[in-house]
User: Fold this.
Amino acid sequence: MAAEMGWQVAECLLPGLTPAIARSLTDRLRTELARSHDGGRVSFFGSLLMPEDEVLLCLFAGTAAEVRALSERAELPFERILGCEGLDWQMPDPEKGTRE
Assistant:
């Protein structure tokens, strides 16, 4: 079910990928989401950059088809869209600077 609805990762394998390029790509995703008329069915949460491997993973909530469409409109050069599940995540408490 994760591949149809829920969390999705856009996997980008980009030779020459730098933090500046990664920021530019995620800015394009946010800009496209802001002008999108999809009724808020897709959310973009951010990315993980692995500079040594020239890999950028962009995390979304939505269906794979909606994430693919958004990524294509934003011209994100992804290899594939993968359904995924978050396991045992702990969010920091912003007031304490510690985990909940």
Q: What stands out?
A: The chain has one domain: 7-84. Residues 7-84 form a domain with the Alpha-Beta Plaits fold (CATH 3.30.70.3090). The chain has a mean pLDDT of 87.
